[in-house]
Design goal:
By secondary structure, the chain is an alpha/beta fold. Helices cover 49% and strands 11% of the residues.
């Protein structure tokens, strides 16, 4: 199957009400384990990939290391692979396009692309972020790959109060529409956990909606009923594995389990 075929296969897995579940990975080994569990596609998580190599989240992991990790994952699986690209390691559209071209060369067929200002404060104005998405889409078109651009809004991660999040649904809907017009393929709303708000954004978004599992979230079946098309797990698989590793190591060594 060609990279283009994998990209089209991946896009087709996003069905409103029958969500694609992505249990996020961080290297080729975790990719193999999740694939053997029956995954239909694989997705990296930026925090997990960075932590596995001793870096903090937020593009602290060098771009070269991210590309090498993506390439190795793609080489070891026949499943579609999407990569958490954070802010694309660039601000200017031209630089974003160049970085996207390099990521596509790894064999990846999708990206998460966030609208927060990485390393700064706040969120990019919607028009600025739309231009950035257009640059990514142009690079993908030039490569001949229908890259799945999962446009992430950080509105809800930056405002965790569910009551205050309700006032952001209109802004989120505006962003979903603008991102869709710019060439995005999906709309990612991490941090949004209240059922009525998830349902509203699923109804408002012209793009398939991606929810992120976190403590207190509705379960998979309920998210499907609310209209979600994709469920990801962010850093939580990595954190769970590290907790299990610490506990097993402490038991073997004969020391108290570290906090």
């Amino acid at each position: 199957m060609t990279q283009g075929d994998l990209a089209r296969r991946f896009a087709a897995l996003h069905v409103k009400g029958a969500p694609l579940v992505l249990y996020n990975i961080w290297d080729a080994g975790s990719a193999a384990a999740v694939a053997k569990a029956g995954a239909r596609a694989l997705a990296t998580g930026s925090a997990s990939v960075a932590a596995a190599q001793g870096y903090k989240d937020g593009q602290a992991l060098p771009l070269e290391a991210l590309l090498a990790t993506a390439r190795r994952i793609v080489e070891t699986t026949e499943l579609p692979v999407t990569v958490d690209f954070e802010g694309g390691y660039a601000e200017a559209p031209a630089s974003l396009a160049a970085n996207t071209s390099r990521l596509i060369e790894t064999g990846a067929v999708g990206v998460n692309f966030e609208d927060q200002i990485v390393g700064g404060d706040g969120i990019h104005p919607v028009e600025v972020q739309a231009d950035r998405i257009r640059a990514i889409r142009k690079a993908a078109d030039e490569a001949g790959i229908p890259l799945f651009i999962n446009a992430r809004t950080d509105l809800f991660l930056k405002e965790r109060d569910a009551d205050r999040q309700a006032a952001l649904i209109g802004d989120a809907g505006t962003r979903a529409a603008a991102y869709a017009e710019a060439g995005a393929s999906g709309f990612f709303v991490p941090g949004l956990g209240r059922e009525d708000l998830i349902e509203r954004i699923c109804a408002a978004s012209p793009l398939p909606v991606n929810a992120m599992m976190m403590p207190g979230m509705p379960d998979r079946e309920r998210l499907a009923a609310l209209g979600v098309a994709r469920i990801s797990h962010g850093p939580f698989p990595y954190l769970a594995m590290m907790d299990a590793l610490k506990s097993a190591a402490a038991e073997a060594i004969g020391t108290p389990v570290p906090a």
